[in-house]
Each structure stands twice: as structure tokens, then as C-alpha cells.
Design a protein that fits this description.
Strand content: 35-45%
Helix content: 10-25%
Distance between the termini: 93 Å
Number of helices: 2
Shape: flat
CATH topology of the largest domain: Immunoglobulin-like
Number of strands: 17
CATH class of the largest domain: Mainly Beta
Number of domains: 2
């Protein structure tokens, strides 16, 4: 067999593999990856940005971390896998609600809590309102006296601006009242009992300001020239 025939045979063998990559992209994606929607977000000052973090239902995810500019902002943890499909979340840290069917659920923002003094009790409404004004605390959900979930937001600048909803598999995270200080890279990370660490792609957020930006605390060259010209006109 000639060299040309060998090359033709080799190229023909690559065609099925190429078609698999093109036609079935989901089959070659890492199974343990967190799907973070939108690679880039561009909003105005005072506006909001929404990021969706989701994983396959076959993954027993127990913990979600939301990171911004190399620091953890949100931590959401579920202790028991059997409630993952039943438990929903809603609201900011100051207006937070655990939503789950059943009874004997309570919530608190204190460790080692006494069920009798819990700040919320699940009744017929199927949701526990668990607001907190203590920005350094963690919100806990209990079934009877057993801790089954927790939620923490830090730093405090995000407590009233970070609004979440959904389940731990499909979490919607909305950042509100954005300023130029919020520009940067955001992502979701996680932990699963059957797969270990989970990672998501980065989302780059740009917040457009209006007029002269004062973020650096200095005047731009153009502004300085205008100011100098005005001073000369006074003499």
C-alpha cells in the first residue's frame, strides 16, 4: 500500500470521531462541570445581572459556592441528599425563605439553636421565612432538631443585593444595584458526594458608568486640561 493510500485511510478513520464532536457535543462535556450561563454580561450602573448555575440531576450536589473576583460571596449547603429535590430557595439574605413540603421544619440564624426559639416554623404555607439582620451569621434549616441545610452570604455588602431562587441543581443568582466596583469575574463552584469538587466557567461582568468615572480618585488628563484652561481665563 502506498503512502498516499495510507494517508487516505487515516483521514477516513477520523471522520466518525469528528462527527461525534460536532453532532453530539453533550457527550464529550465533563460530567462534573457546573454549567454557568453567559460568558459575558454588560449592564448599566444601578442595574442588575443574572447568572444561572446548574448541574445534571444525576449529580448528588451538596454545596454551591458563588465566587466574585477571587472571593467567596455565597455558600449554600444541603446535608441530606433526599431533600435536594424538595427544597427551594428564595430571596435575599435579609428576606430569605426556605420552601419545602412537610412539617416540623424550623429555621434560625444561630448555631446550637433551641427549636422552641427558632425564628421561623413551617406550617400550612410550606415555606419558612428566615430573615436576618445579623450580617455575620449563617441561616440554618432544621428538621426537628437535625440540621439539614445552611446558607451564608459574605461580605455584608451583598446581603441585600444578592437575590437567589431555585434549587441547588438549578440556582438563579441575581446581583442588583450594581456599581463599577462590581466589575470583574464571577463563577460557581461546588461539591458533590459522588463526584467531589465541581467547577464552572467564568462570567465577566462589566458595569457601565455615566459621565466621568471617579473610581480611581483622580482626574483624567482631559479633565485636568479643561480645569487648567478655566483657571487661565480667570486672570
Amino acid at each position: 500500500m502506498s503512502m498516499a493510500e495510507d494517508m487516505k485511510l487515516f483521514l477516513n478513520s477520523l471522520v466518525p470521531v469528528f462527527l461525534i464532536f460536532i453532532l453530539v457535543p453533550g457527550k464529550v462535556r465533563p460530567n462534573g462541570e457546573i454549567n454557568v450561563t453567559s460568558a459575558k454580561l454588560d449592564v448599566d450602573v444601578g442595574g442588575s445581572a443574572t447568572i444561572f448555575c446548574s448541574v445534571a440531576k444525576t449529580i448528588d450536589i451538596r454545596e454551591i459556592h458563588f465566587w466574585g473576583n477571587d472571593r467567596e460571596i455565597l455558600n449554600l449547603k444541603i446535608q441530606k441528599s433526599e431533600i435536594s429535590s424538595k427544597l427551594n430557595f428564595s430571596g435575599t439574605f435579609e428576606t430569605f425563605k426556605w420552601i419545602i413540603k412537610g412539617s416540623e421544619y424550623t429555621c434560625t440564624d444561630k448555631t446550637g439553636m433551641d427549636v422552641q426559639t427558632a425564628s421561623g416554623v413551617l406550617e400550612e404555607t410550606e415555606q419558612v421565612e428566615c430573615p436576618s439582620t445579623n450580617t455575620s451569621s449563617t441561616l440554618f434549616l432544621y428538621f426537628k432538631t437535625e440540621e439539614i441545610a445552611s446558607y451564608r452570604v459574605q461580605p455584608s455588602a451583598y446581603h441585600s443585593r444578592l437575590d437567589i431562587s431555585g434549587t441547588i441543581w438549578d440556582l438563579k443568582i441575581m446581583l442588583t444595584d450594581l456599581s463599577e466596583k462590581d466589575c470583574g469575574s464571577y463563577t460557581c463552584k461546588g461539591n458533590a458526594s459522588n463526584m467531589g469538587e465541581l467547577k464552572g466557567n467564568a462570567v465577566f461582568l462589566t458595569v457601565r458608568g455615566h459621565g466621568i468615572s471617579l473610581n480611581t480618585g483622580t482626574l483624567t488628563l482631559a479633565s485636568a486640561m479643561v480645569l487648567t484652561s478655566s483657571l487661565f481665563l480667570l486672570y
